[in-house]
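sanity check this record:
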Amino acid sequence: MTTLDATREEAIARDERDPLDGFAERFHTADGLYLDGNSLGPLSTDAERTLQRVIEEWREEGIHGWTDGEPPWFRYGEHLGDRLAPLVGADETEVVAANSTTVNIHTLVGTFLDTIDGRPTVLIDGLNFPTDGYAVRAQLRQRGFDPDDRLVVVESSDGRTIDEGDVVAALEENDVDLLLLPSVLYRSGQLLDIECIATAAADHGVLCGFDLAHSIGVVPHDLSDVDFAVWCSYKYLNAGPGAIAGCYVNERHFGTQPALAGWWGHEKATQFEMRSTYTPAETAGAWQIGTVPMLSAAPLEGALDITTEAGIDAIREKSLTLSEYLMALVDDRLDDEFTVGTPRERSQRGGHVAVEHPAAERIVAALAARDVVVDFRPPNVVRVCPAPLYTSHLDVWEFVTTLSTIAESGDHERFDPSGEVT
C-alpha cells in the first residue's frame, strides 16, 4: 500500500501534472476556497461571453433575434440539447434544454403515468432530494391516487446509501410501473449503477427515469436503456443560478402526448400558425412548455464550450483523483470524529464528498468565517465539492489543513447552528 505524501509540496506537484490545469483561470471565484460547485458553479468568462452576446442581440435585433440570432433563439433549446447529448450518451433529438428541473419531473412523470392503465405504482428512494418526491406525490394526487398507497420507497440500510440490490428486490416484490431515482445521492455522493437498475426495470416492464442533477457535467452517462431523465445546469455545468434545465426522452417514446403541453413544444414547422390543435414535436423538444428563457439559457452555451473543450472523460478522471486525495487527507490528518460517508469505490462515487462530524453545522460556519465555502446537509454532513474544472489539489490540501486547524482548536464551538459567533 502506497504511503500518502500529505505535504503541501506534493499537492503542488500533483497540480503540475494536471492535464486540466489552466481551466480555473476562466472562472470567477471569490477569495478563499470555493468548494460548493455541486450547489452552484461559479461564473466563467465563457458563460459571461454567450450571455453578453444574447444581450447584444436583444439590443440590436429586438424581436428579430428569434430568427436572426447566432444561433436563432427560436431553436435555442434544441441547439443546447444537441450540445448536451454527448454528456448523456444520447442522440441529439433525444435531449432538449427546457424548463426547470422540477417542472421537467412533473411533465415527464405525468406523461408516463398517463400511459399506464389502472392504478399506477411508482418506486422512489428514501434519500432522494425532496423535490423529486414532492413532484411524484403531486402527480399521483392529481390523478386521484393516494401517494401512500401507490408509492414503493426503497429505504437506506445505513442512512447514507441505497443498495441497488434492494431496488431490484423491490421491483421483483412489487407490481411497479415507473421508477424515478437519482444518479447521485445529494448527501453522501453515492453514484448509483444506472445500467444495473435500467436493466432490471426493463426486465420487469417498468418505465425508468433518473434525476441527474448531481452528476451531469462531472460523470459521463449512457442513457440508451433509460426511458427519461432530468437535470439542472447550475451545478457542474456552471450555467448560473436558475439556469435552464434539461431533459432526455428516449426516442421510442416520441409521439407520446406530454402531460404539460405548451406552445413551445409544438412542432416547429407549424408552431406560428397558431393552430388550436396541439401537435407535439417528434423529438424531446415536445416536452418544452413555455418560451425558452434566453437570458437563463445563454450562459449554458458558453459553459458547455468549456466542458466540451476539457472533455467529460478527463473531467471525470480528475474528479475521481481529487475526491480520492480529499478522502485520503481526511483519513490521514483528522481525528476519529471525522468520517468519510461517501463510497470509496470509484464506480460508486459522484463528484462530491460527505465529510461527517457530529458538529458539522458549526464546522461549516467556522469554515465560512475563514472564506471556505462548503455546505451543511443534516444531520452531520460537511459536503465538499472539488469540482475539477476550477479546483486544484492545493485547494483540497488547504481545505483539509483549515478543517484540521478548526478541529484541533475547537474554534467551531464558538458558532451556534445559525453560523453566528456566540
